[in-house]
Amino acid sequence: MKKSIKRLILLAGLLGLVFLTVACSRQGINNSTPQPPAGGPYGFIYKYLAVPFQNLILYTSKTIGGKEGYAWGIIIISFIVRLLLLPLGLYQQKKSIIQQEKMKVIQPQMQLIQKYQSKATTQQAQTQISQLMMAVYRKNNIKLTGGIGCLPLLLQFPVFIAIYQAVQYSHEISKATFWGAPLAKPSLIITIIATLFYVIQAWMSTKTIPAEQKQQMQMMLLISPATTFFISLISSAALALYFLIGGIIIVIQQVISDYIITPRVRQQVDANLKDHPVVTVVTEADLKNLTSSESAAKNSSDNQQAALLHQRNRQRNAGKQQHVHESLKNSTSPTAAAKNSSDNQQAVSVHQRNRQRNAGKQRHHSKNH
Fold it and tell me: What is the pLDDT of residues 32-68, one digit of tens each?
């Protein structure tokens, strides 16, 4: 999962870089013949890639003839570039398939680790379980960095810029058309067709992905069609043509992968498992012991905290009892006794006066009757 997130971040960065390149290049589209870059990385790409591309496109146009001859030059360049990258793409897919097949055989151990990792409540326990996961990979000879990653996309990036520059900085090519669309302006029709090929390739690739990995790979599978659509939509039809040819090649690559490479890889992995069986690194009993020891340590810590709290409460209660005892002691002192005697005498005197007052009232009432 972490590997997929890293790839997604890298692809997003490359996508942003392509958008920036196209946005910077679009400023000259509306001009008749913009000046080509003379220095920096864009100047280097223009001198050693874009100019040869321009010459090949012009030569193809003169050979084929017609208004669409320039577009056929771009198509030929695209085919040559993508065919050169095809072995690299097939190698990448082979490494990815080997990784998937190896992951299948360790899935029971990985599911156990994921199950108990969610139950771990301390940082130490989570670290120990993560170390067990790495041990499963290491002892079963599974590399987390299998495949080539984004190398094919990185290699194509200068080609994107070169094709764009070849059209933009040539007056003849920029005025040419293909299917009625100017090569120097965006074409919605070519964009949609190119995107459909990448959608087909993404759908085909899900046929060989294990069910438990499909959900994790959904976002990755959408990146390629989305990148193709948005770049082609905001750039020129020439660049959309490159993506269209690339989509055709990548579908052919996927067919080779599904029907030739995948069966061979599965046979190789099965034969390798007979000679080198899966190494069992973790069992449910090991993980139960790990989590139970973690629970025991947590309970011991809780008991210590409870004992400390109980001791503080006892000290607090002892202080309160001592305060009450001192108050009672003070109440039995001579000064307190004298004060209590005086209070009793005053109470008796008030009681006598009340009795005399009540007796006078009764005699007065008898006389009236």
Answer: 567 788 888 888 888 888 899 899 888 888 888 777 8
What is the 3 state secondary structure string of the chain? Answer: CHHHHHHHHHHHHHHHHHHHHHHHHHHHCCCCCCCCCCCHHHHHHHHHHHHHHHHHHHHHHHHHCCCCHHHHHHHHHHHHHHHHHHHHHHHHHHHHHHHHHHHHHCHHHHHHHHHHHCCCCCHHHHHHHHHHHHHHHHHCCCCCCCCCCCHHHHHHHHHHHHHHHHHHCCHHHHCCEECCEECCCCCHHHHHHHHHHHHHHHHHHCCCCCHHHHHHHHHHHHHHHHHHHHHHHHCCHHHHHHHHHHHHHHHHHHHHHHHHHHHHHHHHHHHHHHHCCCCCCCCHHHHHHHHHHHHHHHHHHHHHHHHHHHHHHHHHHHHHHHHHHHHHHHHCCHHHHHHHHHHHHHHHHHHHHHHHHHHHHHHHHHHHC
Closest CA to 288 of 145, 116, 172, 140: 116
Provide the token pair at 169. 């900085």
Nearest to 120 by CA among 110, 134, 130, 133: 130
Beta bridge partners of 181: 178
List CB contacts of 89: < 8 A, sequence separation 6 or more: 152, 250, 253
Non-local (6+) Cβ contacts of 333 within 8 A are none
- pLDDT tens digits for range 144-178: 665 556 677 788 888 888 888 888 888 888 888 88
Q: Identity (one letter) of the amino acid at 184?
A: A
Structure tokens belonging to residue 167: 């059209």
φ, ψ of residue 39 in degrees (nearest 5): -145, 180
CA 196 to CA 311: how far, in whole Å? 74
Task: Check: pTM over 0.70? Answer yes or no.
Answer: no
